[in-house]
Amino acid sequence: MIRIERRLEQPRWLFVAVPVLSIVIAFLFATVVLLATHHPPLHTFRRLFDAAFLDNGALTETFVSATPLMFTGLAAAVAFRMNLFNIGGEGQLYTGAIAGATVALLLAGAPSPLVIAAMILAGAAGGALLAAIPGILRAFFSTNEIITSLMLNYVVALFLDYLIFDSHSYLRDTSGFEASVFPQGKTLPDEATWPSWTIHGVVVPLGAVVAVVLACALWGLYSRTRFGFEVKVIGDSARAGRYAGMRTRRKILAVMCLSGAIAGLGGASQDGDFRHQLDPRGLTQANYGYAGIVVAALARYNPFAVVLIAFLLGGLQNAGFTLQGADFPNGLVGVLQGLILFCALGGELFVRYRVRFDRRQTTTAESAA
Amino acid sequence: MVHQHFRLVSPFTVAENVVLGDHRDIGRSFLLHTRAIERRVAELAARYGLAVDPRARIWQLSLGEQQRVEILKALYQDARVLILDEPTAVLTPQEADALFGTIRAMADDGRTVIFISHKLHEVKAVADRVTILRRGRSVATVPAADATPRSLAALMVGREIELGRRNGKHAVGEVCLQLDGVGADGDRGVAAVRDVSLTVRAGEIVAVAGVAGNGQRELAETIAGMRAPTHGTIRVRGRQLDGGDPREAIRAGIAYVPEDRLGTGVAPGLSVASNVVLKSYRRPPASRGPFLMLRAIRELAQSLMQRYDVRTSGPDVPARHLSGGNLQKVVLAREFSGDPIVLVAASPTRGLDVAGIEVVHSYLRGAAESGVGVVLLSEDLDEIRALADRIAVMFEGEVVGERDAQTATVEELGLLMAGGEEAG
Known about the structure:
The complex is a heterodimer. Chain A is mainly alpha-helical. Chain A has 16 helices and four strands. Chain A has a two-stranded antiparallel sheet. Chain A is globular. The two termini of chain A are 19 Å apart. The relative contact order of chain A is 0.20. The longest helix of chain B has 16 residues. Chains A and B meet through helix 9 and helix 10 of A and helix 9 and strand 12 of B.
């Protein structure tokens, strides 16, 4: 008889042992898959690792994949800490990108720092406004925020498509013949390009720096301020929060907006750091918002861990792009990534629960009865 | 069994609910013979005077009608023994009378009905025999015809050994809490507190006695701002509160020990230190401006834990790991540390062992001696008699009588609690 029961206490060593063991098991599974498909496992793992972190320019590419995951990961972590399940990071990132690109085009010609600052603010405001919809519904009408925030993702994705493909909006490039055949967003002015720093050949974008600073600020907010204290109490027991005289509704709305603002910032970073235009295809295919939820879960909602995990997952994604080719089908890359994620998330179960094997003496008596 | 809280599927029709869980003939076949079921249900309903439309959906029905469905469910399965758990709690007097008719009809039909109630006049009205339970034990069984409300009440409360009472007169100060005609709705939206007026003076322990579910919890929540009053006023030292706002109540000096310790009284997943500052985190020393002073919080927690003898391995332990007694000490430590004017304690000793009860009692006495006006809500008459100066008895949301603790007899209180006529 196998039983799974909740752990009353979670020993500290588990927090290290379980993730490490999960990764080891993931690689064991991956070995089986690779052997079955006639690929040398060790060589493949080596290539995976090289492509993610060691090759020339690999870290630069990893930063490109990791930066948006840091933002969406932080956005999810901030809300999930309060047991507020904002699944709308995806849509909030799009709104941030739309708002950021609009401001950049409007302010073309202004000094670059001003344009960048305005993009950051607009992106955050866009994400916060979108998140305020499920926030208000949850705080004042007790609507399930998981469903409302998730549904809004589709609304915003369609709006994004509409802006570029189905309308002659301000954001669409309508200048030449090519642009009318292959619709795309207007190229943003040069002033709207975010700076980056090259350290030992690794290009670190402004967005990544902002994300790290944000992670530090959020850590301080949650562990050192009254606001963070209230969020923790309400997240643990909303009744206790009310009992202590906390304004629970306002806090729900505030946290939802904060979460949306962070995701929106990620959208602005997409415009300024990487894409330099509003790019519906690229944004919707990347699924940063949903991946951010995985990042937050793996990081146990700790902001520093979010940055680290986002970096590792970014590397894994980036390695996938490099690995795939004639001898290595795209599907296999997905299988490897999936195995690692599956094991890492599955391992979580063993931190919170334990499995007990016990032989029941009464089995025969019971079957007789 | 007819539960006090109904077990019905609200989007389903009456007939569908009635056959739910029935595994004989009709229920056994794959298809639901809706017509046949509805006809049978209607027949049963007519025979026992349970007027209800078999095709109506549960959510459309009043509570009284829903209860009839519950009874129909039992009758449909041809139950020989029916257990009704406080069936009149949700009924109007007219509905209750109709229910008594149904119960008689079922009994005449040769069925056994066990009717659970704490209302003496109902027991007299419907039962043949009465069994009295006290603290989980059957105390006596008497024929209903011979019983008087007074004799039943005496059996209900028993004659326990007198516990150490608070002796002597206390210096009682000015009025610190005054309720005037306070009313409040319960969780189901029905009035749970009706026209309650109560005066508590500094240094006094006023007990609110009553059988569970007669509005004491709602009254405590209303005073503490957790529940909005629908009528009346609440004054602390003459200053009127708007009500319905816990923060306002805290500021006014109302400390509250809630009935539900884990979940309301403390945030179970947070550390003991965090729970100690659950109400004082807005002010120095726990915080300065928007920032928390973590070291000051720890020190505060440690000194309070020492003073109130909270036994844990340290202030960082999650509150959920504490025993009931230690948890209650944390709550009391926090509530007293806010220098309250009024302390509202709702069933503060429920679930505690003897030692824990003694500690809580001594803290409540200590609070009164230091000039706090204490409101103690409890079902335990022994506890009330051991602590209180004055005793108010609640029945169906109203204060039905107020007695001096020195002169009140157990029989008299028991009679009031069970809704007996005011004994002069």
